[in-house]
Amino acid sequence: MTDTAAHQDPATSPETIRIGDQDIPVWPAGQEIVCVGQAVRFTTFADHQIYHPALKEKILAQEAVNRRDNPPSTRCLGGVKVRRPDQWPDFPEMQLINERAKTLFRRVIGAPKAHVDAMWANIYREGESIGPHSHRRTVASMLYLLEPGEQDPDCEYSGRFSIVDPRVDVCARLQEGFLTNPYLPPLVEGSLLIFPAQLVHHVNAYFGKRPRITLTWNIHPEPVPGSVRDQVQFKEVPTRVMQ
Question: Are the C-beta atoms of residues 93 and 54 closer than 8 Å to each other?
């Protein structure tokens, strides 16, 4: 058993993390990684009920503070974010998920190291969504479904994460290079998804009453200079009227 309260090695993860009186394996024996097309992979951890309750409670407590102090200006920017929970000290439930994310990155990418460039929780309330975007400064992005919220019987896409990029084969089934099939991974509570960070993706509007919570990582094989929140110089985009 390894104490991981201060574990920061990007090249290794401890074999186990102690939660309460249990030593939980970082990568359970026989853990299956599902391959989707040429670019997307995911896995689901069956032991998530051991570590989810405490983590949900802590994230929702911080969400309440963030909504009070900095309420969202619009419903389409991804709900409320709780930044860098992977850096919370002495919180083994978060440390376990973080080490699992880094382990999946190393296994899928084949890189010897995994450096977390950015990490946050998204808490979606009724009517909240996030528009199409991709993630800069990184090789891979990862999404973990911590709390699925409530399903809407009238809208199966409610709150669902969707990849909408014609560069990936699973989204261009009818014609290469064209977005013909948005891909909605069949994620359940405890699922961890990895995909190339440049792929365009979004989250459909959520219509449940109970909050829906996801965790997101941007991970790179080497440290990335600067900060993900640095200002950038936007390029001018020429426009013209088509006749």
Answer: yes
Please name which of 182, 5, 165 lies closest in space to residue 90, comparing C-alpha atoms: 5
Mean pLDDT on 162-183: 96
Q: Looking at this protein, which amino acid is placed at residue 224? A: V
Q: How far apart are CA 140 and CA 68, in angstroms?
A: 32
If you average pLDDT over residues 156-163, what whole number do you get? 95
- Show the DSSP H helices in the chain as ranges: 52-69, 92-109
Distance CA 18, CA 208 (A): 34
Q: How far apart are CA 95 and CA 193, in angstroms?
A: 17
Phi and psi at residue 66, to the nearest 5°:
-65, -40
Pick 160 or 7 by higher pLDDT.
160
**What distance in Å separates the CA atoms of residue 8 and residue 200, rounded to the nearest whole number?**
30
